[in-house]
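Input/output pair, single chain:
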Amino acid sequence: YPNPTTGELRWEGAEKAVTVRVYDVLGQLRLEGAAAEGHIDVKGLPVGLYVVQFLDAVGSVVAVHKVQRI
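Output:
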């Protein structure tokens, strides 16, 4: 949350996740951070649609969300 966002994305309940990755619609990795932080700053990204993946310790995807940067 919030979605859409103008800056920072926050999340809760990602206990199994270790890493968070933000991809653009072309599948290019744009940001990566620690899921335990509970937030990631996307204000440096261009306006558009992004896919946010949460990964566990072995690199398996545990959750995927679409987010719009406005």
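The CA atoms of residues 47 and 69 lie 5 Å apart. The chain has a mean pLDDT of 95.
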